[in-house]
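Q: Structure tokens for this one, please.
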Amino acid sequence: MDTKILSGKVVSESVYKNIKSRIDILAAKSINPGLAVILVGDDGPSQVYVQNKTKTFTNLGLYSETIKLKKETSQKKLLEILQKLNDDNKYHGILVQLPLPSHIDNETIIKSINPKKDVDGFHPLNLGALAAGKPTFTPCTPKGIMRVLEYYNLDLSNKHVVVVGRSNIVGRPISILTSLKREYSNATTTICHSGTNNISYYTKQADVVILALGYPQFLKGKDIKLGAIVIDVGINRVKNTETNTYKLLGDCEESSIKGKASSLTPVPGGIGPMTIAMLVENTIEAAEMEL
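A: Here is the predicted structure, written as tokens:
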């Protein structure tokens, strides 16, 4: 079987093309969507990710500022900065890059962001709206997954989706989005996680497998049925001890999945670009609240 590659790069370019008119409408009202990004510490992948976000915003003519803080920055200091950003009208979106250092409580920080500026979609009010089937700001990665499926006309209605992973960033939100009663959704969704015995028992039944476990090459070709759709969200930096270099690997073993899956998102170039595209779109949605 020929496996179709679902390119997030292609879909993200389509997103940027389609939102240009929305940016122009805002510009005519002297509104420039602005994003504040807070980066605490020197985590390598986080730095690269923030740089990519900033570059995308700049290329689109949008305003973005990155606030870099030392790893030892106190939670109190971070909360003070967030309060100032909440009150600053030039920022329509606020993003705190995760993971945070261990002495800072993620939940406290997320709750302190104004829900109307929570373009990551992690605030309890926004997650609650999503759970109620009336999303406001949808978390960027799950939203990007749904957009890829729509772009390639992969309707989930009457399909069995198995999500591997239960985080509030990907697993739980995508389990809700795939099961909502609306176009391209309406699936029967099962969630598996690190506490699930024999995960392959479930993935072998799935029409669609969405991997967000954070375990490199976890899913093998033998773990899926012929013709399944595989959405790989995992981005794992794996070190080659012989060459002392790093390679990006997904949560599935691409070599054995290809030829058995009908469709597959690659790593890199799959869901990663879509996460940034949806962040841009969420920030524009936040700015449009001023119209």
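A few notes: The chain has ten helices and eleven strands. The CA atoms of residues 86 and 114 lie 6 Å apart.
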